[in-house]
Fold this sequence. Notes:
The protein is α/β, with parallel strands linked by helices. Helices cover 41% and strands 15% of the residues. Helix 3 (59-72) runs antiparallel to helix 12 (276-291) and helix 13 runs parallel beside helix 15 (374-390).
Amino acid sequence: MKLMQEKLSKYDAPQKAKALGVYPYFRKIESDQDTEVLINGKKVLMFGSNSYLGLTNHPKIKEAAIAAIRKYGTGCAGSRFLNGTLDIHEELEHRLAKFVGKEEAIIYSTGFQVNLGVVSCVTGRGDYILWDELDHASIIEGRRLSFSTPVKYRHNDMQSLEDQLRNCNPDKVKLIVTDGVFSMEGDVANLSEIVRLAKQYNAAVMVDEAHGIGVFGRDGRGTCDHFGVTDDVDLIMGTFSKSFASLGGFIATDKVTANYLRHNSRSYIFSASITPASTAAVGAALDIMESEPERIANLWDVTNYALEGFRRIGCEIGNTCTPIIPLFIRDNEKTFRVTRDLFDEGIFVNPVVSPAVAPKDTLIRFSLMATHTRAQVDVALEKIEKCFKHLDIIK
C-alpha cells in the first residue's frame, strides 16, 4: 500500500457506522424528489429536502428543461468565458438581477462555486474577510483561498462583529460575509444590524441567500428584501438547487464588481457553464415563484404548524423560525440511531454530526416543502415523538 492510501485507510468512521447498522448516507432514491419518495421499494415521507417550494417535479419546469435540450443540446462544452455562453444564460442573468434588486447577475455552475469564486476574489492582501462562525462550508473554503486576513465572529453576535471590525485597519477593505438563513440551525442573520455596522466601519456586505430565496421577501426575493436592506448589501448570492429546483448558482451585485468578477473569479472562468436544461428550469421556476404566491404561503403555514408541534412534544429546536428545523440530539451515537429508527418508521431526515458540528451540537435536520400537508407533518411528529422517547431524547 502506498503512503497516501496507508494514511487514508486509517479513516474508518463509515465502516464502523455500517457495522452498527446506523450508516445514514447515500440512501438511493428511486423516484422524484417529492414529499414522498421511494427508497429500496419502500415509500417514505421526505423531510430532508431543500426543495422549499416543491418544484422539482413541476411539469412546466420539466418541459422547459426538455425544450432547452432539444434546442441547445445537453451541455455547452466550455466555460462562459470562452464558448459556453448562451442567450438563455444572459436572459436569466438579467431576470435574476432584477428579481433581487441589483444591477447585474452572474451565473456559476454551482452555488458552492459562487462562494468559492467570489469570497476568494473580491479582497486581497492586507484586506479582511469577516465571517460568521456558522457560515456555510463554501464560504469557509472561499476565505481559505483568499490572501486576505480571515476574521471569525461569534454566531449572529453583533457585539462580536463590532469588536472585530474595530480591530481592522480602517484603510483596508473589509467584507462581511453571512448566510441569510443558516442552513443547519434555521435561524436568520441580523441583517439590519450587520448593515448598520458595515456603514459605521466602511465595510462591504455579502449575503448567501441559498436558503432565503423562495422563502423570505416579496415573491421569495430573500432575506435582504425581507429586511429592506437590498440597496445596502453589496453582493447577494443564490443557488438554483433549492427553491429553483435545478442546479447552479448566481451572484448579484453592482456593475463595477460584476465586471471584476467576470474576469478574475477563477471558479467562474475555469468551470464549464451551467447546462441548457438547468438554465431553462431556473427560468421556469422563477415564473412560478412570481405567479404562484400561494406556494410561499403554504410553506409558511406548514412550517408554523410544524414548529408549534415540535415545541408541544418537547423537542429542542433552538432559534429557528424557518422551514429548516433543527432537532437537537447532542449525542453522535443517538443521532445516528434515531435517524435509522425514523427511516424504519417511514420518515427521511438528515443527521448532522461531528466533525460537521461539535458532538454537543449534533442534530436532526428536519426541512419542509410548500407541498407538504399538515397530515404528513402529523405523521412525522407522531413517529419522531415515539423514536425520541425510546432513546430518552425527550420525556
